[in-house]
Design a protein that fits this description.
alpha/beta, 22 helices, 10 strands, 10% strand
Length: 483
């Protein structure tokens, strides 16, 4: 069985206009199959998570402990990153720093070219999606093959992941069966799930044996010991990090913790929050290349530490809480908006609630100022976040940053991108009227008398609602008549 050439030319992430975004959202909402698939999947994941936390007191305690660990790690982030680099270097790992996706891809491409790599086999890594790694390697004539089954499916389909934990959650088994039959030579149509998994494994097995480089993500990086922790369920992560001669890991700078003992609570709450498992099938700890007396493992290990807007979030005390995220996806699973539109409608690497607060730092508010508004602010995301990120508060903060008047020294890149002078004037006028008792009484009297002049189209409000219209009589008038 021969695997097809990886779809490295899959469409890279692009941010579209507000109107195109609305069209994508409308398309998703009006797709009954998509809504049914996501509703069923999210209900299943929510039930599995709930079953893992039968004791509310234990959950509250574990969340508080995990939050404290993440906040402590972030409070010492610069020092811990330097300690991590020193320890990894002592262990024989090459450490690289990248400020932007382009810099990260340049580093990775240099490593690939120095080893004359033709094939890179990848474990699951959202940071590699963030930097468009596959697209960059394909442009350089190097194949990058996803080995996580969900990632492999969306790569074959020329799509992007629609969930950070379950990339192909939007696909049915019938769609995957047709995809395999169309894309993999010698494969007949079958919608038997076990058979489909075996087909994928057979294709990937030969690629592990011939790959020049294995690439992985990192769930936690331990500064004290120089250890890279990798959580996975399929064993492909272990294959990627042990079979090829060269292992390259890439992660955001926020993933560092000080000690190994800090990993245990985070690992416990990560797996239970993400997939409803008490533990994952595999937990890999990597501290360096193969030693002379070891039988397996890579001869060379690299770690790329990526910034890509994380320093911007770190610089602000409130926005820094964004970096507490451990990428479990629980906020997506409980979000009513994500459940109805899926991940692709957002148009960013990270969809759902976490994407709305992470993407503006990575891409700037010029391209993402609408994202914080794709929320009902119901608070479900904040209630289930295992590290207690106040996502609703951050969404409100980002809305303010996007809509406020541009400033000379903005906190965020693209601050004021959604600012509208007319809207701003209207809100200032409203504030002045409602701050004055006489002004309020005069305005309400005029509004009730001239209600027939109320416009029937009221910007975004009437896109999905009936127009607002003042009552024919004010409450104060009705109360006065009852005396």
């Amino acid at each position: 069985m021969t695997a097809p050439r990886p779809a490295g030319d899959a469409r890279p992430i692009t941010i579209v206009s507000a109107e195109a975004l609305r069209q994508r959202i409308h398309g998703a909402v009006n797709d009954p199959h998509l809504r049914s698939s996501f509703r069923g999947a999210m209900d299943f994941l929510m039930a599995k998570r709930a079953a893992q936390f039968p004791d509310a007191d234990e959950l509250a305690s574990l969340r508080s402990l995990s939050e404290s660990i993440r906040q402590y790690s972030l409070s010492r982030l610069p020092d811990l990153l330097e300690q991590l680099e020193a320890r990894l270097t002592a262990n024989g790992v090459h450490v690289h720093w990248a400020e932007t996706p382009d810099e990260a891809n340049a580093i990775l491409l240099d490593i690939a070219r120095r080893h004359a790599a033709q094939l890179i086999v990848k474990g699951k890594s959202m940071v590699s999606e963030e930097i468009e790694f596959n697209h960059a390697m394909h442009a350089a004539g190097i194949d990058a093959l996803e080995s996580d089954m969900g990632e492999y499916i969306v790569q074959l389909a020329g799509e992007k992941p629609s969930h950070i934990i379950m990339p192909a959650i939007h696909q049915t088994k019938q769609q995957i069966a047709r995809l395999f039959a169309d894309k993999i030579p010698g494969v007949d149509y079958t919608d038997n799930v076990d058979a489909l998994i075996q087909i994928g494994r057979r294709v990937l097995r030969e690629k592990f044996e011939t790959a020049d480089i294995g690439l992985s993500g990192v769930n936690f990086a331990v500064a004290e010991t120089g250890t890279l922790c990798l959580v996975e369920n399929e064993g492909n992560g272990r294959m990627c990090t042990t079979v090829p001669r060269v292992h390259v890991a890439i992660t955001g700078i926020e993933k560092v913790v000080e000690k190994l003992e800090h990993v245990a609570p985070l690992y416990s709450i990560l797996t239970r929050s993400a997939t409803g498992q008490s533990v994952s099938t595999y937990f890999n700890l990597i501290s360096g290349p193969r030693k002379p007396d070891e039988r397996d493992g890579p001869e060379e290990v690299h770690l790329v530490l990526l910034d890509n807007g994380r320093s911007q979030a770190y610089a602000d005390a409130q926005l820094r809480k964004t970096l507490q995220c451990i990428r479990c996806g629980a906020c997506m699973n409980h979000c009513p908006v994500y459940t109805r539109i899926g991940g692709h409608a957002y148009g960013t690497t990270y969809p759902g609630p976490i994407g709305k607060i992470v993407s503006p730092h990575m891409m700037g508010l010029q391209q993402t100022h609408l994202m914080p508004s794709l929320s009902s602010l119901c608070g479900a995301c904040g209630e289930v976040c295992p590290v207690k990120i106040p996502i609703p508060e951050l969404l409100i903060r980002l809305r303010g940053e996007a809509q406020s008047a541009p400033q000379a020294n903005p906190v965020m890149a693209g601050q004021g991108a959604g600012h509208d002078r007319l809207v701003s004037f209207a809100w200032r006028a409203w504030a002045r009227v409602y701050a004055s008792p006489l002004g309020y009484r005069t305005f309400s009297w005029l509004a009730s008398r001239f209600r027939a002049l109320t416009p029937t189209r009221q910007a975004g409000w009437t896109a999905a609602r009936l127009p607002l219209q003042p009552a024919p009589r004010r409450l104060r008038d009705m109360l006065r008549d009852r005396r």
